[in-house]
Amino acid sequence: YEQPKVIKATMEGRITATRVLEQALGTDAENLLENVRHVQIIACGTSYHAGMVARYWIEDLAGVPCSVEVASEFRYRKHVIQPDTLFLCISQSGETADTLAALRQAKKAGFRAALAICNVPGSSLVRESDLVIMTQAGPEIGVASTKAFTTQLTALLIFTLALARHNGLNAEREADIVKAIHLLPGQVSDVLALDGEIEEMSKAFMDKNHSLFLGRGSQYPVAMEGALKLKEISYIHAEAYPAGELKHGPLALVDSEMPVVTVAPNNDLVEKLKSNLEEVRARGGELFVFADKAADVKPEEGLHVMQIPSVHEITAPIVYTVPLQLLSYHVAVLKGTDVDQPRNLAKSVTV
Ligand code: F1P
């Protein structure tokens, strides 16, 4: 519920209509962003999903190739790091052992600069990076990241605009996105107001042991994050797939005991998802679709629709994350699990 406030705090003072990041990064940063030819993102858990979303933005808006990998694997793999690579670590705590190990290892291989997106000033990650954008999420009490994720995305989008300016992003498109970022706190508040309807929807998951989450494009990582939240706090097995992969395997699992959650923010995506919807329903699976209220998707037997206010396609991943967080929260409350302190998990994995 703090998300409108902390998203605003993260972007405040950092965006002007034409000049992004001037306060956040300063002039040195502008120099470091010159001649970046590749971005390598490293993170774990929820922070990794933020990086997955950012890849769509960086390649679309800045036209710079971007790779994303979990730090827990990156550090155990031989890799090639080019001198024109910007190495970007995302971590709420700034103390995740795998993320720090990956950064230290990459430093030996050499890169243009290390940028951190972090929520804790003075953390190891902040101290060891060349550039830092601080998220302003404030302390996260719960183990499962919620506001840390949406503020990371906000910071990543601000960074992407700065990088894109160095790579010829058209001023009109930039201004349009800056405008969309400013709308985020209000839009997230509107989604939080759907709480009662989402609580109602959550009852369908109470007695289920498995679930599938589908998304396309930058909503695929949102589906991954939705699935992670459900796993972490309600202990329901949840798998996320890019919507187009459904027929390449997971469809075999679909039956009436397997709820399928789909994120489809606009009509175009809804159209593309329609075949998936049919495939699921033909097997008796129940579908839970989070879609733009302007899109042509109407509730019917086996198809539950949560209408989300219309948002800009670039900022949609931030807005659509929130109803999925609420869904997991309500399922967990109904099941009586400890939402703030899930079994077996620690807030910061420092070993
Ligand atoms: C990474 C992370 C969190 C998750 C849990 C364990 O932490 O996977 O996303 O919620 O708390 O650690 P961080 O590097 O973002 O601090």
TrEMBL record:
Active site: 347
Broad EC category: transferase
EC nos: 2.6.1.16
A GO molecular-function annotation: glutamine-fructose-6-phosphate transaminase (isomerizing) activity
Catalysed reactions, semicolon-separated: D-fructose 6-phosphate + L-glutamine = D-glucosamine 6-phosphate + L-glutamate
Superkingdom as given in the UniProt entry: Bacteria
Residue ranges occupied by any SIS domain in the UniProt entry: 29-169, 201-342
Localisation per UniProt entry: Cytoplasm
Keywords assigned by UniProt, alphabetized: Aminotransferase, Cytoplasm, Glutamine amidotransferase, Repeat, Transferase
Keyword Coiled coil: no
Main location: cytoplasm
Known partners and oligomeric status: Homodimer.
Role according to the record: Catalyzes the first step in hexosamine metabolism, converting fructose-6P into glucosamine-6P using glutamine as a nitrogen source.
Annotated protein name in UniProt: Glutamine--fructose-6-phosphate aminotransferase [isomerizing]
Organism: Marinobacter alkaliphilus
